[in-house]
């Protein structure tokens, strides 16, 4: 019996697929080279933009024929997209041949769902918001890099973003569990880099009792003996403290590479996005990083065409990119997500305008990279 996992979206999903792989192998499944030779196909989905969801619908739909020829094939769809009830229901309606549709919080019970399908039942399990699961190991698949989840969820409710709805509120893992996992990774001597994951790593530990700061976690990890580099993502500018910047500057193990999504360079849009910082505040953080960590790589995410964004306001994003001279950026066209505040705003921007803006921003990035000799 063989399994095949198709992963969409961010590093968190890549890492959760490593957990799914471990669950499958514990059930006795082996890793398949492709979908055709698999007895169990899992789609670990992403809901961040409409495009990601369209791809999932297309690729799941394409399995109809395979299932007809191979009735014992089990097809499962899980992850952020199916954490939303409406999408999960639509998935089941459109594709009655799909056996398992579950959300992000149900992943630890995956083996039980597979067993239930084999016993003749179809499953639909969703919403239950659970604690971080510490019981299931990972089958690490990212070469010399080991992902380590330190927290899940997000409390920020940026108005465009679906994440708080599908990942729940911020929950941090206990520091001792994180340190134990990292000690074990280092002892294996197979990994050169450890990457800490969380939707908002800088607010790590605020929900713990007693609280632990992200800066302390970083220091404690660096104190673990061994030859490894440490990286983390993603940081929210509002929570990146001076203390964290100091720790990055001081600790040799930490990569001098910060991903600090700005999203927009215009204060009115930042406010409408509920980002809780201004352009000026963001620039002051960049200045601090440049001063304390010379040659630090800085990267960012931007959304263009947020509802009501005018041409002048978009120009502010262009000028921010010009001013910061990022090493690299990701630029996304705004995609309305059902249930979010921004999706209900008047004055959604036409696709053509969004395309023009995203192309202009990426062209500017290329120009800067060339000028500055950046990677
Ligand atoms: N539309 C477009 N881009 C989005 N992002 C998050 N939500 C949306 C959306 N609705 C982008 C942000 C975030 C990155 C992971 O995805 O830039 O930082
Ligand atoms: Fe989404 Fe904002 Fe949370 Fe990031 S910080 S996951 S963009 S709500």
Explain the overall architecture.
The chain has 375 residues and is α/β, with parallel strands linked by helices. The chain has three domains: 2-125, 3-Layer(aba) Sandwich (Rossmann fold); 142-255, Transcription Regulator spoIIAA (2-Layer Sandwich), CATH 3.30.750.210; 257-375, Transcription Regulator spoIIAA, CATH 3.30.750.200. It is 39% helix and 17% strand. It is built from 13 helices and 14 strands. It has helices spanning 11-26, 50-61, 64-69, 85-94, 110-118, 163-167, 175-188, 214-222, 242-250, 267-272, 279-292, 311-324, 351-372; strands at 2-7, 30-31, 40-45, 74-79, 100-102, 123-125, 145-149, 151-152, 171-172, 193-197, 229-233, 257-259, 297-304, 328-333. Helix 8 (214-222) runs parallel beside helix 9 and helix 12 (311-324) packs parallel to helix 13. The protein starts with a strand and ends with a helix. Residues 48-49, 160-161, 261, 263, 301, 303, 332, 334-335, 337 line the site of 5'-deoxyadenosine.
Which characteristics define this entry?
Rossmann fold, 13 helices, 375 residues, Transcription Regulator spoIIAA
């Amino acid at each position: 019996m063989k399994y095949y996992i198709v992963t969409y979206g961010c590093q968190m999903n890549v890492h959760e697929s490593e957990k799914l792989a471990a669950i499958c192998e514990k059930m006795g499944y082996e890793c398949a080279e492709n979908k055709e030779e698999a007895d169990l196909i899992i789609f670990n989905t992403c809901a961040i933009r409409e495009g990601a969801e369209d791809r999932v619908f297309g690729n799941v739909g394409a399995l109809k024929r395979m299932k007809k020829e191979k009735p014992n094939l089990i097809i499962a769809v899980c992850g952020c997209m199916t954490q939303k009830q409406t999408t999960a229901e639509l998935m089941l309606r459109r594709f009655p041949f799909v056996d398992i549709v579950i959300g992000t919080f149900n992943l630890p019970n995956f083996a039980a769902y597979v067993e239930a399908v084999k016993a003749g039942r179809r499953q639909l399990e969703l919403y239950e918001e659970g604690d971080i699961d510490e019981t299931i190991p990972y089958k690490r698949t990212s070469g010399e890099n080991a992902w380590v989840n330190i927290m899940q969820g997000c409390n920020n409710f940026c108005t465009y973003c679906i994440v708080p709805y599908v990942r729940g509120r911020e929950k941090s893992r206990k520091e001792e569990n994180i340190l134990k996992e990292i000690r074990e990774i280092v002892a294996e001597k197979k990994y050169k880099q450890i990457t800490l994951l969380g939707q908002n790593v800088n607010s790590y530990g605020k929900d713990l009792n007693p609280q632990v700061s992200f800066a302390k976690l970083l220091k404690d990890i660096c104190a673990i003996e061994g030859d490894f580099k440490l990286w983390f993502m993603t940081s929210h500018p509002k929570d990146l403290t001076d203390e964290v910047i100091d720790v990055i500057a001081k600790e040799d193990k930490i990569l001098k590479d910060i991903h600090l999504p700005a999203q927009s360079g215009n204060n009115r849009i930042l406010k409408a996005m509920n980002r809780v910082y201004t352009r000026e505040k963001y620039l002051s953080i960049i200045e601090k990083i440049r001063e304390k960590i010379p040659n630090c790589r800085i990267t960012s995410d931007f959304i263009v065409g947020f509802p009501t964004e005018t041409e002048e306001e978009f120009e502010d994003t262009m000028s921010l990119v010009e001013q910061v001279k990022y090493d690299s950026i990701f630029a996304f066209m705004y995609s309305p997500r059902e249930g979010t505040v921004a999706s209900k705003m008047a004055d959604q921007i036409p696709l053509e305008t969004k395309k023009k803006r995203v192309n202009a921003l990426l062209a500017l990035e290329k120009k800067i990279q060339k000028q500055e000799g950046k990677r």
